[in-house]
Design brief:
By secondary structure, the chain is mainly beta. The chain has three helices and 22 strands. The strands form five sheets. The chain has a five-stranded mixed beta sheet, with no helix packed on it. A five-stranded mixed beta sheet has the order 2-4-11-6-9. The structure holds 2-acetamido-2-deoxy-beta-D-glucopyranose. Belongs to the CRF-binding protein family.
């Protein structure tokens, strides 16, 4: 992902989160204000509009619940909105007031995940649904649908609209997800704990910034206590073991195309840390289903001076590790 796009997304996220803060402040104030009960029904309806509402842009990033209305002022042939929620949330999308002409080539498609530069997150390997089931097509002749629910904290909508005055409204709602697996971080710093309880499933936590990651706790294969891992595993790498954590780095969002930077297949109580100077840094937990696995980590944005100087001239695929 280009630095420009990432910066743009970051700015969006910042501006959106400060706006949520504002609308929350307004709502709290209202709730505390006894005068609210004296408002006429019309006035109350109007104030319910503080449920966030705004126009949707042809290229957009949404990080709040609300209603987003797209109205074409000219033919818009390649539009997309990226939607992101908190790590322990999934996203419900619902289309309403749809006024488009599917027979003229207009479309609106929702996607369970993100597609960036042709790469998908979560990767095909790590998502529980086959790829075709991750698309919801409003114009599909076989299975038209106007609602979609994501499997993780990111989702997306693609649309093409030819005639001016056509459009639609997208309702975004975030729902709690008690078992998050596959997460895109909203910010370049934070901490998280991924847990995989007895499921044969792989989960990735993706941070689309160059970061330093510190593993603060790792517990793998808590089975019988007398089952000591043989030492030679260290040298054989972790792929022979069904339960491990890998740190990946790369410049796209598909984790199956990223470079392994480190493997850890032992429970750990000390610290392991690594600087990953890539556009995307990932902690991936591979689980056999035999155990309860847990990994905790913290991450922070690498400063400009911590990035390798050769980076700008380097091949597109290259990124550094320390
Ligand atoms: C998890 O990942 C490992 C290594 O990438 C792979 O061998 C295994 O089949 C994956 N498991 C699932 C359920 O996809």
């Amino acid at each position: 992902m280009s630095v420009a796009l990432r910066t743009q997304m970051f700015l969006f996220l910042i501006s959106l989160s400060s706006r949520t803060g504002l609308s929350r402040y307004i709502e709290d104030n209202e709730a505390a204000d006894g005068l609210y009960s004296l408002l006429s029904l019309d006035q109350k309806r109007e104030s319910e509009d503080f449920i966030f509402r705004r126009p949707l842009r042809c290229l957009d990033m949404l990080a709040t619940d609300g209603y987003f209305t797209f109205a074409a002022s000219q033919p818009q042939l390649a539009c997309a909105a990226f939607i992101i929620a908190g790590p322990s949330e999934v996203i419900s999308l619902e289309l309403s007031d749809v006024n488009i002409d599917c027979s003229a080539g207009d479309f609106i498609k929702m996607f369970d995940g993100w597609v960036l530069k042709g790469e998908k997150f979560p990767s095909r390997q790590d998502h529980q649904l086959p790829l075709h089931q991750r698309y919801t097509d409003y114009c599909s002749s076989a299975a038209p649908a106007a609602t979609s629910r994501s499997s993780q904290n990111v989702a997306m909508i693609f649309f093409r609209i030819h005639s001016p005055n056509s459009g639609f409204t997208l309702a975004v709602r975030k729902l709690h997800n008690p078992f998050p697996c596959n997460i895109m971080s909203q910010s370049p710093e934070g901490s998280f704990t991924m847990v995989m309880p007895h499921q044969r499933r792989n989960c990735s936590f993706s941070i689309i910034y160059p970061v330093e990651i510190r593993l603060t706790d790792l517990s793998l294969g808590q089975a019988k206590s007398n089952e000591v891992s043989p030492k030679r595993k260290v040298w054989a790498g972790c792929s022979g073991s069904g339960d491990y954590v890998e740190l990946l780095g790369g410049n796209g969002v598909d984790t199956s195309m990223m470079f392994p930077m480190a493997d850890l297949c032992f429970s750990l109580t000390g610290l392991a840390q690594m600087k990953i100077g890539c556009d995307n840094s990932v902690v991936r937990l591979v689980s056999s289903g035999n155990y309860i696995n847990r990994v905790s980590f913290q991450y922070r944005l690498l400063e400009q001076r911590e990035l390798p100087k050769t980076r700008e001239n380097a091949l597109d695929n290259f990124c550094s590790v320390e």
